[in-house]
Amino acid sequence: MTRQIQDYALIGDLRTAALVSKDGAIDWLSLPRFDSPAVCAALLGDAGHGQWTLAPFGRQRCSRRRYRTNTLVLETEWTTPDGMVRVTDLMVPGSPAPMVVRIVDGLVGTVAMRTRIAPRMGYGKNIPTLYSARGQLVAASGEDELWLESSVHLSPADGSWTGAFIVNAGERVSFTLTYAAVGEAREPAPSAGSALTMTTVFWTDWASRSTYSGPWDSEVMQSLIILKALTYAPTGSILAAATTSLPERIGGSRNWDYRYSWLRDATFTLQALLATGYLREAEEWRDWLLRTIIDSPSGLQIMYAVDGAGDLHEETLDWLPGHAGSTPVRVGNGAATQQQNDVWGEVLDILATARDAGVPDANDQEMLERILLDQIESHWQDPDHGLWEVRGPRRHFLHSKLLAWVGVDRTVRTLAQHSAQEPQQLGRLRALRRTIAREISDRGYHAAHPAFTQSYGSPRLDAAALLLPRYGLLQWTDPRMVATVEAIQRDLTDHGLVLRYAVSDDGHNVDGVPGSEGTFLAASFWLADALHGIGRGNEATELFERLLSLRNDVGLLSEEYDPRAGCHLGNTPQALSHAGLVTTAVTLTAASSSASSSPAAPELQSEPGRGMGSNVA
After folding, report:
1. Which pTM value belongs to this model?
2. What is the mean pLDDT of residues 88-105?
3. Residue 603 pLDDT > 60, yes or no?
4. Predicted confidence (pLDDT) per residue in 348-407, tens digit
5. What pLDDT, in 10s, does the model give residues 260-314?
């Protein structure tokens, strides 16, 4: 069976995750952490690179599958000529060690099943040694062990276990695979039935905390659960996606490792969570950031490993042929060392948003905010690599300037509310805020191609310009913003879905990376927000409903979409895409026909008939 990115469902335990295909195969599993080397890497190769199959004999795609309501417990069903069977897949949040539980329930008649458990440690490179110990089967390689418990007789061969069994209606068979480091004391794992109960209770309890109520309840909740699944419980960090190197164009080389915590991406996730009543995640992420940064402010980075480590050395895994032949396969991410000036403003913004939502300040939060503000004051005038992490020359990206303004603005608001003792600093920051706004006004809008554009002096459109009113720099009704939205909808879309930017310019790739990419799903949600903001609510809802239809059968969205081939592209599931779904649903649900942005700052308000920056004072 040829598997596409949209064929996969996610299971996870807030430490790591697995991808399960429609044919019942686990093709991706990293243990013990999201960013650990995969023990099942068929997603980026073939069965020989690690895979766990479990399905009826002779069957490929399932008859149907779904998540149990308000959980990350996956149920996959097959109907055969002789009966019906269900496989329930899950991982257990809070279990003593990461574990994958697979439960086979006979529903009707008799079904012949088969399984092949073929772990390959080190991203599919290392065949483990198999042996038995304490009544369980063990696969060992290097410092890693996998302990397998099942009532099914399994035969070892070539570093794999295979088995065939019959399940009748009313019968249950289970498999539990648990990770352990060599020499590590192992606590008893819960039974499969207990694991199912524990996991169901965890997710339903968490889901019950949502404050969202509207026409898209189930869609929003599914995306919120995915966002929660992309958090790393031991530290509170938040991932960009669960996978590495799924291509942004099939056969292309734009394949990156997203299993890390980008500060920017995390703020979008937190916007969605805070907007739906989830404050604890914001507090836990803030505390992780404090621990990560306070001890080493000079080593400030735009992204970190899930435990806060800063070394994300990028390398290629040449033994993996890539998903659908898309190479190279990369682990690590070289963007960690880039200068991306927007990040500090995004963090200051989410800290202010969390404070407004009721998250209490931490003891060292003032110091953290001072470190971030220092970064803005020191570097806002510098060119950078921007939010799209171009691997070409640095530029004066509009979005980076916008977020510099945001960081200063949020600091001004905080000082004005909580620190009457520092009038001199407040005056200085207000002046800096006006200066940044004036520069954006003078240099960010391209009069010859009426729109806010990607970088100073460039006519190139950029989807990030759709965020200008969200952060409060100007109103949606500003004629320049209306012109920008219309230009992006007209000139930066493919079949109505938004591109991040036009990659190619007269045969030259402006971002320094060869090849092309698909439409960017998060940016398409931004366009829906923008259409709503400029008063075109029906179009906004139509676009949002179309984006909902692009989710796969269990509600997952990847990073990008190919509207011609009708397939997902890029790493999956992607936090930015699901955060966009939630925030757009919240926006469209709100009973208001006006813009959903913060009140506009005076710096960029324009008057009819006046030139750019006429009110900049």
Report:
1. 0.95
2. 97
3. no
4. 999 999 999 999 999 999 999 999 999 999 999 999 999 999 988 899 999 999 999 999
5. 999 999 999 999 999 999 999 999 999 999 999 987 777 899 999 999 999 999 9
Alpha helices, H only, 317-450: 343-357, 365-379, 398-418, 423-443
**pLDDT 10s digits, 515-533:** 889 999 999 999 999 999 9
Phi, psi of 168 (to 5 degrees): -100, 165
Looking at residue 511, its pLDDT comes to 79
C-alpha–C-alpha distance, residues 339 and 135, integer Å: 53
Which residues of 13-95 form beta strands (DSSP E)?
17-21, 26-30, 38-40, 51-56, 64-67, 74-80, 83-91
* pLDDT recorded at residue 244: 98
Q: Do the Cβ atoms of 147 and 66 come closer than 8 Å?
A: no
Q: What letter does residue 508 receive in the DSSP assignment?
A: E
- The residue behind tokens 């739906």 is 276
The span from the CA of 324 to the CA of 377, in Å, is 45
CA distances for 72 relative to 13, 69, 239, 274, 580, angstroms: 9, 8, 17, 21, 20
How many angstroms separate the CA atoms of 247 and 328, rounded?
Answer: 9
pLDDT at 612: 32
Give me the half-sphere count of Cα atoms (radius 13 Å) on the Cβ side of residue 235.
22
Between residues 189 and 382, the one the model is more confident about: 382
Phi and psi, residue 163, nearest 5°: -160, 155
Asked whether the beta carbons of 158 and 119 are under 8 A apart, the reply is no
Q: What one-character DSSP code corresponds to residue 232?
A: E
Contacts of residues 351-358 at CB distance under 8 Å and 24 or more positions apart, as own/partner, are 351/286, 351/410, 352/410, 352/413, 352/414, 353/270, 353/271, 353/274, 354/270, 354/274, 354/279, 354/282, 354/283, 354/286, 355/414, 357/274, 357/279, 357/282, 358/279
Question: Is the model's pLDDT at 34 over the cut of 50?
Answer: yes
Q: At what angle do helices 398-418 and 343-357 cross, to 10 degrees?
A: 40
| 606 contact partners, CB below 8 Å, separation of at least 6 | 474, 478, 479, 480, 612, 614, 615
Q: Rounded mean pLDDT of 37-51?
A: 98
Cα–Cα distance measured from residue 341 to residue 382, given in angstroms and rounded to the nearest whole number = 8
CA distance 510 to 516: 11
Please give the DSSP secondary-structure letter assigned to residue 329: -
Mapped onto helix, strand or coil, the DSSP state of residue 98 is: coil
Amino acid occupying residue 395: R
The most distant pair of C-alpha atoms in the chain lies apart, rounded to whole Å, by 82
